């Protein structure tokens, strides 16, 4: 189970790193033109940049604390933070009547919740 959690966390970290970098470095207008990117028109450019930075920090928090064995409790805390972001994303895409994107966000939410629950509980690093 530990190996599966590492794989899931690694894949999620890659997804959130790319998503966060896109939000942080690509202009809002260009993000809005991407498939499924219409949601950015509902938020300010400053919020989108902040969200990108938080996603990058969450991605780092899923891997580095445990890999370096420095404060591994940060891994499930990062997972809870990313789960909160994905809950908001699912709500936004549902309100925008984008069921495919909402389902994708719920899938990420389920995976990140699995990491959080397992790392707080039976598969903790302590």
From TrEMBL:
Where would you find the membrane-spanning parts of this chain?
6-26, 47-67, 73-91, 103-121
Tell me the lineage of the source organism.
Answer: Bacteria, Bacillati, Actinomycetota, Actinomycetes, Propionibacteriales
Protein's UniProt name: DoxX-like protein
Specify the domain of life of the species encoding this protein. Bacteria
- Give any Pfam family that matches: DoxX_2
- Which key words tag this protein in UniProt? Membrane, Transmembrane, Transmembrane helix
- Membrane topology recorded in Swiss-Prot or TrEMBL: Multi-pass membrane protein
| Subcellular localization, as worded in the UniProt entry | Membrane
